[in-house]
Structures are given as C-alpha cells and as structure tokens.
Amino acid sequence: MARGPRAGVSADPVRAFFRALFSVVLRIFFRRIEVSGLEHVPAQGPVLFVLNHPNGLVDPAFLLCLAPRRVSLLAKAPLFRMPVIGSFCRAFDAIPVHRRQDEGFDPAQNRETFETARTVLAREGAIAIFPEGASHSDPQLRPLRTGAARIALGAAAMLAGPTPLRIVPAGLYYRAKRTFRSAALLHFAEPLLVAPVRLASGEEPPAGPVRELTAQIERALAEVTLQAEQTEVHALVERAQRIFTAQDDPPETPPTLREEFDLRRRFLAGYRVARIHWPDRFTALAQRIDRYELALAAAGLDPHHLVPQGFAWRRVARYAVAALAWLLVLLPATLVGVVTHYPAYRAVGFVATGLARGADDALASIKVLAAMLLFPLTWAGTALAMWRWRGVEAALWTVVSLPLAAYAALAFVERLDRLIGGARALGLFLFKRWAFLRLLAERKSIREDILALGREIEDVSPA
Hints:
By secondary structure, this protein is an alpha/beta fold.
C-alpha cells in the first residue's frame, strides 16, 4: 500500500535529525552551496516541485534540506527496501513509485501512489518529483515522463480552497558533481499555474492536457538547466568560461553561482549560433582554448593564478605569513586527523569507484553514504580503543575531538593547495617572466576573441 506523509509530532524529531545530518554532510562534501529564487516558492498552498536529476541521491537531499517548505518526495519503490536508504525515505515521508522494471511491478500500486500524491496537494502540502524518471549524466534533459502532469491535473481537480496549485521548476547545477569540495546551486524558477480540468471522481486527466502541461514543464526545466548535444560541449564551455572570468585584478567578492550558471547558459547559446554562422572561426578559437589549458596544466596552474597585481612583494609577504601561520596552527590537529581518517578516506574512494562502475550520477551519492558509515565507525572504534586504554573520559574526549581534527585536516589541505598554486605562479613570474607574460597575453587575447564573437552573435540572434 502506498504511504503518504505521516501526521503527528512523533515523526518530526526523526525528520529534523536526518535533515540536520544531511545538511552537515552536504556542507562538508561541497565547499560552496547556494540557493536562489526562494521568492518564487509560495509560502502556503499546494506546490509541486519538479527538478532535473543529475546526481543520484544527492539531488533529493538538496531539496529536502534547502527548500523553504516541508516536502514529500516521490521515490522509486526499490529504495524503500534498502536497509539505510529506506529509513531515510520513510523519515522524509517519501511516496513510493513502482516502475515496470521493478520486481513484482503492479500497475494498481501506482494508481494508489498517484492518489496519495494528489491528496497531499489537495491538503495544500508540497511534493517533489524528478520527471526524467531516473538520475543520469546525459548532457541534456531526458524526455519527461507524464507523471508530474497527471498528478498536478488530478490534484487541481480535487482542490476545494481558493489557492490554486502551482508547479515550481527547480534546477540543480553542479560545477563538478563527482568532485569532493566542489560547488552546487539550487535555483527555483517562477511557478507555473495549473489550470484545473473538470474530472469525475476517480477519472484520470485526458491525454491532451497531460501532454500540454508536460511540455510546459519541460520548457521550464530547460530554462534552469544546462543543455548541450554532447558532453564535450559542456567541457569546452567550462574551459572557455574559466578563461573568460579570470581577471588581472579579481574582485574581492567572487560572482555568485547563479551568475556563473547564467554566464554558462549564455556561452552554450553562443556556441550553437557560432557553430552555424562561423564554423571555421569557432573551431580555431576552440583549439586555442584547448592549447592554452594544456599549457596551464603543464605548469600546474589555473587561469586565476595569473594575477600580476597579486605579486607585489608586500602583498605576497602578507599572504605568505598569514597562510603559513594558519598552517602551523592547524598542523597538530591535521596530523591527528590524517593519521586517524586516512584509511576511511581511501576506503570511501575505493568503495564508491567499485560500486558506481563508471556511473558519474551515482558516484557522489555512494561517496556520501560510504563516508556517513565509515567515518563514524572510525570515531567509534578509536573511542572504544581509548576507553579500554585510558577510560571513559578519554573516550568521550576522542568522540568530540576526532570530527574537529578531520575538519582541521580538510581546511589544512585546502589552504596548502591554494598556497602551492600561488607559489607555482609566483615562481613562474619571478624566474620565467617571459612564459608568465605569454600565458597572460594569450588569456587576454582569447577573452577578447570571445567578446568579439559574442557581439557578433548578438547581432545575428533574434531579439
């Protein structure tokens, strides 16, 4: 039997605990997380969130932790039978969806699932669905299933209050979804108002309105996601954007992830126009970008390291002293953190790589779940050893200090990485000035070519 959101106070502490836990885990896995468009989410009334699905179980975790509404997810039924994940699904009031490829599939179960979802919306609740049907790493949206539209139209027909049903498209953007300590954006777009269709009790929405609403949802999701014909196009646009945004004197406040996302969308739109109107010119620019990135990689640099103004000796001295001071402060805790957690860290990577089997959309999810299991086991095992060696007080101190030592090690490694990158750039600036200036000049030239091409694209593009 399909289960809807549980009522009562007893479920709230469990949900609150898991929500807090996932929030901490996401903040650790991703160095930078941003949410935009919260003004588009109605504070009250029925809401159906529709999202793209590029990153496995990480995608629903973002929505559950960051949405301003209490949300129930539609999740594939096999997840409910998994030992740990099933507990998460039940804690977050997920509604199981039964697919044809699932063992023991019965179409009658999904009719009950749809009725449960419609009832939640009719009571002015909020549910979420990934209308692509499955997580994937395709370079563009997959064709949408009709379930979201069928649920929405059925719920709109059941609403008795004055508040209409709204569909809120939400886009998930990951700078590098499989990379630890990357960045992620959750953006809510303007809601779609669902026009009710008159239905008899128990009647399914007609095919015409379902197709029309599904097409509207697909267009709305296309506006909050990055679309390209091939994965290689995304890689090229990412390289071009990285070069384009590098500046001689970067601003103190970096651009928001929403601004980064919008710029990448403009680059993708420009790519499509340039390939049609100036294929030779575009190919030559793409080859220059590739050669430039290879030269930077050979030097161990990033486009943002080429900052001549940053190499004034006073500025370098201040930065070096501050960075080294922080590294010295963090060093004792870092040594404890590395020695204690390195086996678990390596095991997480080994387990994730083996289980994901090349599926990029599953890798981050497996890493997160493996870390949530292996790191607490590390803390518990170390605390048990300290209890047997030094007593209860030492064990309690271990339980408190080890997570802090792990975080200190993480901060140390990140600061050290930035310091090494800056030192490489400084060494190139001091001892191979000609190579530094050549890279700098090439970056400026590529940026000017991108700007010139962009102006011509604006001239030929429809307003």
